[in-house]
Please model this.
Amino acid sequence: MTLTLPHYPMPDDRGRFGRFGGRYVPETLIPALDELDTAYRAAKTDPAFLSELDRLLREFVNRPSPLYLAQRLTDHAGGAKIYLKREDFNYTGAHKINNCLAQALLAVRMGKKRVIAETGAGQHGVASATAAALLGLECVVYMGAEDIRRQSLNVFRMNLLGAEVREVTSGTSTLKDATNEAIRDWVTNVRDTFYILGSVVGPHPYPAMVRDFQAIIGEETKWQLRAVEGREAPDAIVACVGGGSNAIGIFAPYAYLPKDQRPRLIGTEAAGEGVETGRHAASVAGGRVGVLHGSMMYLMNDDEGQIVPPHSISAGLDYPGIGPEHCHYSETGVAEYVPVTDAQALEGLQLLTRLEGIIPALESAHAIYHAVELARTMRPEQVIVVNLSGRGDKDVAEVARLLDVPKDAPTVTPAIQKPAIQKEVLA
Amino acid sequence: MTAVQSRGVARIHAAFERARAQNRAAFIPFMTGGYPTAEGFPAVADALLARADLMEVGIPYSDPLGDGPTIQRASEQALAGGTSTRHTLGLIKELRRRHDTPIVVMTYVNPIYAVGPREFMRLAADAGVDGLILPDLPPDQDIEIADLAAEYGLAVTFLIAPTSTAARVELVAKACTGFLYAVSVTGVTGAREGSALGEVPAMLALARQYAGVPIAVGFGVNDAATARQVAEVADGVVVGSAFINAVKNGQDVGAVADAIAAGCQR
Model:
C-alpha cells in the first residue's frame, strides 16, 4: 500500500471554505451526510481501504497517468514549456473514474447496495456505471434530456454496463436538473442508497471528499515534474472548471503551499458565447454568491435568486455554479479564473489535435486554449502544466456538427478560424 | 420579546390553539404563489384561506430540490407567468386586505440571499407574513436568518424527518419559534399511495420531548383519510400537492379543501 489521502486545512468542521460551502439540504439528508462524513474519515486512514483503492487505481484505472511534454504545442506557442497531465489515459477516458471508484468502494464499505449519480457530459455517469459493474452495485444515473441528445454514445455505454439512465426533463434538462433529481432520489432512498457525486460541489463532506480523491492528479504531477524538470512546482497550472473536480485535483496539492512556492493556478471557465452575452457558464466571472445543491458558492442567478440557465459548448462545463473551494481560492487570490468561449475552446481542440495527435474533450480544450495564450507571454525556461481532464471521443459528433455549421450562423463566431489554424500549423 | 417581535409567533400559536379547542388538528393548506397564474392565484388562495387555520404560500423557485414533480411544475408555471419573490410577497399583501388567517411563506434560501436577508424579512413583514418555512436550511447552517426573522416579527419553522437522530430532533425542535414541521416520509413533497403514518408516531413522540411549539405533519397527505390519521397524532396537517392537482384538473378547490379539512376533525 503506497497510497495516502491528503489532509488539507480546509474546510472547517462545518464544511466551510471561508464563507463558501456548508450544508443547505433538507433535514432528511443531514444524518446521511454525518454518516458519510464518519465513514469517509475512517476509510481515509484505513490501510485496507487505501490498499484496495491503490490497487484499483493502478491496475484498473491505469495510474499514474503520464506527464507529457507537448513539444509541438510548445513550439507553436513560442514561450513556456507546456506539459499535459494525461487524465485522458485513464480507463473510461477522464479523471472522473478516480473519484467514482473511491466513492463506490466507500459505498461497499458502508453496506450500500445501490448507487446513484448525476451526469452532464456522461463521463461521470460512465465512470459510476463502470465502478458499479466492477463492484456489483445497482446503479441509476440521472441525465438531462438535452445532454442525452448531445452524448448518446455515453448513454449507450452506461446501459451496456448495466446502469439505468433516467432522463430528466425538468427545468433546463441539463446537469443542474439531473443533480436536483439525483438529490431527490437520495432524499427518498437515503437509507440504502449511496450518492456518487461527480464534482467538488454539493453539501459537506462531498467537496472535501471528492477533492481528496482527485488530489492524486496533483500529487503525481509533483514527482513526475521533479523527474523531468528537477522541481515539483511548475510556474503555472491550467485546468478547466465546471463544478471543478479535475481542477481542484491538480490545484489542491499546490494551493496550500506558501505563496512564494505556489504556481499560478488558473481555472478556465466556460464563457460560452461570451460572458457579456449572458449565454455562458462562467460562475466566477458572471455569477454572484448564492446557494445551489447544498452549498454556498458563486452562482448564476438573477436578482430574485432564480437560477439562470447556463450555456456551454461542453455538456461537462454546463453548470451554473462552481465548487466552494474554488470560490474561496478566487476570493483569496490563491487561484485565478478566466473565461474561455465556445469558439476558443473549439480552436483549442483543433490545435491540440493537429499538433499533437490528441483529441481532447471539449472541457479540456478550454484549458488548452488558455494555456497556449499564457505560454506566449512566458519565457522558454518556464513551465506550464495543463490538466488534460478527458479525451474527446464523446464530443466528436458534436464538434463535427458545430464545424459544419455555415459560417454566417449566429452560434459560430469568426474566432473559430478553421483555415487560420491550418495555416499556422502548416507554417 | 417585544410585542412587535412576537407578532407572527403569537398569531401562529393562537391558530393552533383555536383548532385544539375545537378538537381538531390545524388545517394547513399549501399553494404555490402565482399559481396557476398571477391573476388566477387570488381566487384559489381565497378559497383555501377561508377554510384554513394557517396557510402556507410557496415562493416559486427554479430549483426546489425538496419538492416533488407536482410542486416543481407549479413553480415552473408560476415563474413562466412572471411570478417571483417580490411578486409573491405582493400577492400576499393583497390577500391580507381580505383575510386574517395567519400566512407562512415556504421558501428556499437562495431567494432570501438574492434579495438580501434583511430586505427579504422587511418585505415579508410588510406583506403581513407571519412566519417562514425553510426546507433547505437546517437551523445550524445560518443563525442570521432566524435572528433577522425574529427581529421582523416573523416565526421560523424548521423540518425534522424520519431519519433525524434524537440529537437532530432536539436541535431542530428548539430552533423553531412558529411550529415544528415533521416530514412524514423520507422523500420529497407529493401525493403518495398508502398510509401517511408510517414512522410518524415514533417521530412525534421523540419531538414532543423537546418541542415547545405545535407540531405539524406534511408530505404525502392528500385526502381526508390520511388527514384523519395524521390528525390523531399531530397538532396540524399540511396538504399541498392535492390542491395543485385540484387546480390543474379544474376541480373546485374549496370543495376539495372542505373534504380534507373535515378529515382534520378528531
User: Anything to note?
Assistant: The first helix of chain A runs from residue 30 to 44. Confidence is low (pLDDT under 50) at residues 412-427 of chain A. The radius of gyration of chain A is 20 Å. Chain A has two domains: 28-60+95-210, 67-92+215-426.
